[in-house]
């Protein structure tokens, strides 16, 4: 069985929207604005790429990444080489620049998790992340929490009324620039 990992840059108040400068969000690029770069804080990103077996994305994130990530061969060599899956009921087909298999339901994701292989990793994809967590399909969170409050914006966690989910924090580290790494397993 594969592990499903949701990874995110997150503000202290839970916002994950447009960390890298994506258009359309008031605070777009908030991970770079006023926060000093500390290479050590981003080591988790390299570990994720080295350990992942496949990417799992929501439609909007896939459509945003597909024209950009294939050109980033130095930054994302493994991600560009590994299988990609997009969960969508509306996507008519994959983007030939960055081919992916389209999954139509969370049942398809659950079936994919039952296969052998390295972890499935979810980048961005707020709506998908909510659905996966609410369905009990997330096994681990990799979070880089930034010392900033953004107020409005897409949040990492849904506001669904559900039972409490306990997490076991398996790794934390804080960095000189105020970023805090939190790696937590969903307790079963």
UniProtKB/TrEMBL annotation:
Stretch forming the signal peptide: none
Annotated organism of origin: Nocardioides deserti
Gene3D superfamilies: Dihydrofolate Reductase, subunit A
Protein name: Dihydrofolate reductase family protein
InterPro entries: DHFR-like_dom_sf (IPR024072), RibDG_C (IPR002734), Riboflavin_Biosynth_HTPR (IPR050765)
Domain of life per record: Bacteria
Domain Bacterial bifunctional deaminase-reductase C-terminal: 2-180
């Amino acid at each position: 069985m594969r592990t499903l990992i949701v990874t995110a840059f997150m503000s202290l108040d839970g916002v994950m929207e447009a960390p890298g400068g994506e258009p359309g969000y008031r605070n777009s690029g908030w991970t770079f604005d006023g926060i000093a770069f500390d290479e050590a804080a981003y080591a988790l990103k390299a570990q994720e790429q080295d350990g992942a077996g496949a990417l799992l994305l929501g439609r909007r994130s896939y459509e945003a990444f597909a024209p950009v990530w294939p050109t980033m061969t130095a930054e994302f060599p493994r991600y560009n080489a590994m299988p990609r899956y997009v969960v969508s009921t509306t996507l008519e087909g994959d983007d030939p620049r960055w081919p992916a298999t389209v999954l139509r339901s969370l049942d398809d994701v659950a079936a994919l998790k039952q296969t052998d292989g390295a972890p499935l990793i979810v980048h961005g994809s707020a709506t998908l992340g909510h659905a996966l967590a609410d369905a009990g399909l997330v096994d681990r969170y990799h979070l880089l929490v930034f010392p900033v409050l953004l107020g409005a914006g897409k949040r990492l966690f849904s506001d669904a009324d559900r039972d409490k989910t306990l997490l076991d924090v398996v790794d934390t580290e804080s960095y000189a620039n105020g970023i805090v790494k939190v790696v937590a397993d969903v307790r079963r």
